[in-house]
Amino acid sequence: MKKEEILARSKKENIYGDEREKVIRTKRDAFSLWGLIVLGLIIMVIKLFRAESPADIISILFCTAGLAFTYEGLKLKKKLTAISGIVFLLLAGYYFYRFCGRLF
């Protein structure tokens, strides 16, 4: 292979950044997801203390987890992970339905 071909292949493979950038983005996503979960749990506890239904927050948390598990299960071909994600998505739909039922 010529030097130009190697450089062109490397550019194509690293179009979304080098390995360090990919690792940082992955950790960023995980860090922000944990922030969402912690904030959601805090809001849910506040709503429970005020005798309000936390169905909206629960649906958001289940949806986030469900999408993550389903994506991972499909990409890595792990049936149990994908099934877990689908269950979380169904629970998200149920709690969203409960939330909407209280609005109308």
UniProtKB/TrEMBL annotation:
This is Uncharacterized protein. It comes from Faecalicatena faecalis. The keyword Membrane applies. It comes from the Bacteria. The chain crosses the membrane at residues 30-49, 80-97. Keywords: Membrane, Transmembrane, Transmembrane helix. Pfam families: DUF6442 (PF20040).
